[in-house]
Write a structure and sequence with these properties.
Blueprint lengths: L4 E4 L5 H8 L5 E5 L10 H11 L4 E6 L4 H10 L4 E4 L5 H11 L3 E6 L4 H7 L6 E5 L18 H10 L3 E5 L7 H5 L5 E4 L4 E2 L2 E2 L1 H19 L2
Parallel strand pairs: 1-2, 1-8, 2-3, 3-4, 4-5, 5-6, 6-7, 7-8
Antiparallel strand pairs: 9-10
Helix pairs in contact: 1-2, 2-3, 5-6
Pathway: Amino-acid biosynthesis; L-tryptophan biosynthesis; L-tryptophan from chorismate: step 3/5
Protein name: N-(5'-phosphoribosyl)anthranilate isomerase
Catalytic activity: N-(5-phospho-beta-D-ribosyl)anthranilate = 1-(2-carboxyphenylamino)-1-deoxy-D-ribulose 5-phosphate
């Protein structure tokens, strides 16, 4: 069994990065969307990464970025994955992949036509993040969507042979419930924060929930 991907997103200080990097998460995320409270400047991220040297892969989160913005971020921050939260088209994504040769994850906001949207990006994206649809927000809201739909999203991603991460309202209190649905991965931001800073106790609690699931499935 492949172990689930764990992305701790919305890191916005050196202390945040030190805490999330100390975990066994697989990915650390940084928000390069300047209309959001977790926005970070690329030069800051570059400094934090050079100082902490995390073992995790680095994910840059964008909303309909220009090529110039991606160029600027990549000049400072060594991204391993580009995550797109906006209304990017297939053409936009193909252009990004051709220009930067990096995997692209597309966020699908849970709604009636969510599965149809996934079908549009078949063969184009390298993974999906399923998040809650909240008016006026692209993510990081701490709001859950109806988890009864998770199985359908996982099945659709599996048919495309790509990973499907679940986001939105995940925290230490519900992580084990979520893992019962066997997601390919989780994407957590507000659920590991206290007073808008990453909380090491919550980080460890979420990881324990994931690790207990892995142990139970593997029969250890």
């Amino acid at each position: 069994m492949l172990e689930p991907l764990v992305k701790f997103c919305g890191n916005r200080s050196l202390r945040d990065v030190q805490k999330t990097a100390s975990s066994s998460a697989t990915h650390l995320g940084f928000i390069f969307v300047n209309s959001t409270k977790r926005y970070v400047r690329p030069e800051q991220v570059g400094k934090w990464i050079r100082r902490v040297r995390p073992q995790q892969k680095i994910v840059g989160v964008f909303v309909e970025p220009s090529m110039e913005q991606l160029d600027e971020v990549l000049a400072f921050a060594p991204l391993d994955v580009i995550q797109l939260h906006g209304k990017e088209t297939v053409s936009d994504i193909l252009k990004i992949k051709e220009s930067f040769d990096l995997p692209v994850w597309k966020v699908i906001h849970h709604q009636e036509n969510g599965l149809e949207q996934m079908d549009l990006f078949k063969g184009v994206v390298d993974g999906y993040v399923i998040d809650s649809k909240v008016a006026g927000s692209h993510g990081g809201t701490g709001v859950r969507f109806n988890w009864n739909a998770i199985g359908n999203y996982l099945e659709a991603a599996n048919a495309q042979n790509v990973s499907c991460l679940i986001a939105g309202g995940i925290n230490p209190d519900n992580i084990e419930q979520l893992m019962d649905d066997h997601p390919d991965g989780i994407d957590v931001s507000s659920g590991i924060e206290t007073d808008e800073q990453k909380d090491l106790n919550k980080i460890q609690a979420v990881m324990k929930g994931v690790e207990r699931h892995v142990a139970s499935v593997s029969g250890c």
